[in-house]
């Protein structure tokens, strides 16, 4: 049983193959504002993870969901579609699955775009790591999900989205999840620590964070960059917006970043993202810090 469903392929010109993987609580409709532009010159593959309610969900079972299993199913999907050398855009939890998949099968990926990603949500003061949450806060969130899932969604989603106009579609997709499955996937995400996996990534990466994202604060991006010392290149992009869903709230800014990645991938003129992006060369390791 695979954990992906509703695979869709939109083929434009002869550019790159772009794979769009949504994060927790979302579905592939999250990418609708970006799809027309991305598919003009590229082959775009989208799908739903089974926890969205779009696939044949299995009975919830504690510990069944793992990032490694999501990575294996991402690999299976790309093999099934005959993909090699894709530009992989992984949102939130899918970014970590993409990192693990790229280590297991580097031939499948030419570039990773890690969007609103976090390898660890819980703060670790002894390591100087600020993930954004205390353990007690995560435990309280999981308890709230367990006791009244609908009320938790209606409280959590507006904070996560940050833009009232974009709340309804995200709230709808969250409520489509079966509560028991949603809780198990949340435990995997919010109690996990995937930082060790980042050190094995060799594919070039663009880490994209949002300035006002409470779930994955911008400081996490710099921590990820330091851990990804083996990556062929690592850019950090901070979008000047709010929330955890820039696909909905700041689509043109995000599209500019993705088009910049695709130009570099395709050997374009200068590889600079447009849509207001400003690129600054930073002496520390030659890393590009881009504020979009």
What would you note in describing this structure?
With 292 residues, the chain is α/β, with parallel strands linked by helices. It has one domain: 3-Layer(aba) Sandwich (Rossmann fold), CATH 3.40.50. The protein is built from eleven helices and nine strands. It has helices at residues 35-41, 67-80, 93-104, 135-147, 149-161, 167-175, 179-190, 195-198, 219-227, 246-249, 251-265, and strands at residues 4-11, 17-21, 43-49, 86-91, 109-115, 205-212, 234-242, 278-281, 288-291. A nine-stranded mixed beta sheet has the order 1-3-2-4-5-6-7-9-8, sandwiched between helices. Helix 3 (93-104) links the parallel strand 4 and strand 5. Helix 2 packs across helix 3 (93-104), helix 4 crosses helix 5 and helix 5 runs antiparallel to helix 6 (167-175). The chain is globular, with a radius of gyration of 18 Å. Mean pLDDT is 88; it is low at 267-292.
């Amino acid at each position: 049983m695979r954990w992906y469903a509703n695979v869709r392929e939109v083929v434009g010109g002869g550019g790159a193959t772009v794979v769009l993987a949504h994060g927790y609580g979302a579905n592939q409709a999250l990418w609708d504002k970006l799809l027309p532009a991305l598919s003009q010159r590229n082959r775009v593959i989208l799908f739903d993870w089974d926890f969205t309610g779009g696939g044949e969900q299995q009975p919830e079972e504690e510990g069944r969901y793992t990032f490694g299993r999501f990575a294996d199913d991402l690999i299976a999907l790309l093999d099934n579609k005959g993909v090699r050398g894709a530009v992989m855009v992984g949102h939130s939890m899918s970014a970590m699955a993409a990192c693990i998949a790229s280590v297991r099968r580097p031939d499948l990926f030419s570039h990773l775009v890690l969007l609103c990603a976090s390898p660890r949500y819980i703060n670790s003061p002894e390591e100087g790591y600020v993930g954004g949450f205390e353990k007690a806060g995560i435990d309280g969130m999981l308890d709230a999900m367990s006791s009244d899932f609908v009320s938790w969604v209606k409280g959590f989603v507006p904070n996560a989205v940050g833009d009232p106009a974009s709340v309804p579609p995200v709230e709808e997709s969250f409520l489509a999840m079966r509560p028991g499955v949603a809780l198990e996937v949340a435990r995997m995400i919010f109690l996990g620590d995937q930082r060790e996996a980042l050190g094995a990534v060799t594919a070039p990466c663009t880490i994209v964070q949002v300035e006002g994202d409470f779930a994955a604060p911008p400081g996490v991006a710099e921590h990820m960059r330091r851990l990804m010392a083996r990556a062929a290149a690592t850019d950090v992009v901070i979008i000047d917006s709010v929330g955890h869903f820039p696909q909905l709230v700041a689509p043109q800014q995000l599209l500019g970043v993705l088009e910049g990645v695709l130009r570099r991938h395709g050997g374009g003129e200068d590889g600079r993202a447009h849509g207001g992006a400003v690129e600054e060369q930073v002496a520390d390791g030659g890393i590009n810090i881009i504020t979009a």
